[in-house]
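quick one, 144 residues, struct below
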Amino acid sequence: MPAQVHRNVITRLCLILLLALISPARAQLVVPAAGQQQGGPWLLKYARINATASGETTVVTGVAGKRIIVLGYLFSSLLGVSVAVKSNPGGTTLAGAFDLPANGDKSYSGGLNAPAFQTEVGQALVFDLGLATSVRGHLTYIEF
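---
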C-alpha cells in the first residue's frame, strides 16, 4: 500500500474514533468492562454536594430497588471538619470520617472498575458533618 494511502486510512480511522468518543449520545453512557455486572450501559448521574449543618444531610435520595454507586467525587470545606459518608440517615458508614483541614478538599476519580462506595439497596447517600460549616462539591454516580 502506498505511503499516502496508508496515511489517509490512519487519518480517517483517527477521526472516526475521535467522533465516537465525543459524540453527545455516548457521552452520558457508561459501558461496563469485562467482568463487571451486566445490564449496562448505565446513565451517569451527577449530584451537587451542599452540606452546611452539623449532622446528616442527604446528598442523593434513595431509589427503590437500586443502590447508589459513587464513581467519583470532589468536596471541600471552609473550616476544618470531619465528614463521614453514610447509607441512609443513621445508617452504615460507607467512608470516612475524612478529616478536612480549613479550605481543604477530598477527591476520588474512580469508575465502574473502582467505585468509591455504594449504598444499601433503596437507601439514600448521606454526608454527616462533625460541625456546622460549608462543605460543597459534586459527585458522579450510577443507580444499579
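Helices lie at 3-22, 24-27.
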